[in-house]
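Encode chain A's predicted structure.
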Amino acid sequence: MDAHRPGEVAHAPLLLLIEDDAGDALLVEELVADSAPDMKVVWVQSLAEARDALTTTDPDCLLLDLHLPDAHGLEAVARVQEYAENVPIVVLTGLAEEQTGLAAVAVGAQDYLVKGRVEPELFGRAVRYAIQRKQAEQHAAALQASELHAQENARLERGLLPSPLVSTNDVEVVARYRPGRAAALLGGDFYDVVQTADGAVHALIGDVSGHGPDEAAVGVALRIAWRTLVLAGIVGELQMQKLEEILLAERAADRVFATVTTMVMAPDRVAVSVMRAGTPDCSCVPGTRSSGSKHPAAPHSG
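Encoded structure for chain A:
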């Protein structure tokens, strides 16, 4: 098998050899031929050439000499990682540099091989294991990121979907929250129910336009603000004005708007007052218009 200079066609599995010594490059060529003849090698003689090669090739593994014209020792590992962070690295060291090889592994290389002391079987296994370990690292990192994202979403969902603050037995709160489509992103829908000291039951249903953590965060802010306003005795149009102020302060972009509907069930459970704001006829702007009405209510509502 012949080593190829950059620009020639290579087929996976592909190794990028960064080695300035032609004799050592020939040694790697022989090891590849004996251990994994299906592998291809792109040979470059400096980090600068390696960077150029990486713009046109997608290697499965980097074989890196630590004595190059433009980098030496662990500096070579660090610089390669800057523009090939997702590619596994196997370091090539001399007989007296085993500690340097261990240090290279400590800073991110997957393995090291001592020149002139590597059998073909060991070489092929080291390259394959380096590729597998790098893939395992990437999968673990992706899983961790996914778990953190799920935890963040769960915290936002808890903020959007609180436990009702109701102590009376004559009102039952039954809630069900389902996405409007399969695999839906976290949205800005929210609700809350609070009973005040006078026995009135206040309910809120709202929706922030769009889907995603930013919209959900705005929904959480509006829901918490609404509960605070209710407990402070602020209701009606003044309550809506305060919610609008919070929306304008918290939203990430001017295009984000919210719609809310509030309900107040009187302590005697005979009448219900309903107020809406930010309805579709408001031309998709924050809730500056509102409408209110009163309706009779049954003694027991769900």
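Residues 4-11, 281-291, 293-302 have pLDDT under 50 and may be disordered.
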